[in-house]
Amino acid sequence: MTLRRRPPVVALEAATEGASVALPEAGVGIPSALEQLLAKGRLRATLAMLGPAFVASVAYVDPGNFATNIQGGAKYGYLLLWVVLAANLIAMLIQYLSAKLGIVTERNLPEVVRQRFPRAVTWGMWIQAEAMAMSTDIAEFLGAALGLNLLFGVPLFTAGLITGVIAFAILELQTRGFRRFELAITALLGIIFAGFLYETLRIGPSAHASLQGLLPGLSGTGSLYLAVGIVGATVMPHVIYLHSALTNGRMPCRNDRERSRVLRFERLDVIIALGLAGLVNMAMLAVAAKLFHTPALSGLSTIQDAHAQIGHLVGGGAALAFAVALLASGASSSSVGTYAGQVVMGGFLGVRIPLFLRRAITMLPALVVLAVGMNPTNALVLSQVVLSFGIPLALIPLVMLTCKREVMGVHVNRALTTFAAWSCVALISGLNVFLIYRQFFAG
User: In degrees rounded to 5, what are phi and psi of residue 424?
Assistant: First the structure.
């Protein structure tokens, strides 16, 4: 049987007697929320339904992606473009499954895990998910601080404090309704996209070499290692949990027919949002390949060096666009990461703390990194390695649950979807095991 919350009964106050009259849930003759939305026209309905995937997609263009894409382009030119494309196609499937779970069950992934799995498993998943959320937050927080440092010369620690204020302001929108928060995050995603569209048009990566880079191929174990890093930095565990919360109850559905229509809108949302994120990632790598894939610059590995070289080789406008995009990336993804942490705690434990308190707690490790003077880019890369531990632990329960008819009802995954999903789990898990081995055990 499909898991879903019963919508509240509508009560009408009788003015003269002070009594209340309970209407049926389905509201005989009363258009549903979806029907009312569709009555406004297909275009308006589509625009109103877009949003959750745009919030989730911010994690796919976070500062960790800046680091891996810049290194990939500098060292191997356009060779790894196909890896970026493949990683984003995998992300589309995974994020859609998370969104689907939220729409069908009207619960988020951690809540369904808490209901369906043993308590010990639930607590274990919460502990590792919190560790992953903190690691994610470090990367995103550092990225925003770097953006402020590059734009205005603000010392990194002070930039970190300012980043906290920016994140608080964005999170305040979430308390005023999901739509304002979605629009703010989408606007920041638009800034990132516009920045790299400008970079691409200004720098002009080779179209021919870019097309060749879409053909699968590697050049030695070094390129394999970096390819694994790109995949590992692309699929983020915290947005797997979050996406189901973003779609949970966003559009109330009366029956499975309405759920099917909402799922069609969500597929479009995922394709557009993750498609834009994929284009940004490919633009990052292609720009790095055009500028830095030379004997003198192929070893370039830090975001600060990339910014300086863009300014030197192209001009101040391109360097400005890069820094603004980095700031927008860090600020938006940091806020989304904090929101995801709230979903994780509330879902697995049934405990909620104020978002602002959570933001204050999770920003402390990043401030410590900045205070002790650790290289921010090295901290970004290390955070991506830590995240690789948590990706399979989020993917496996997601696929297991969406394959169960007693959970999903008529919306259970088709056989082909199940095969593709488990193949993605096996691929990402295997690649991350390899990444961990190379990072810690290879000589």
Answer: -65, -40
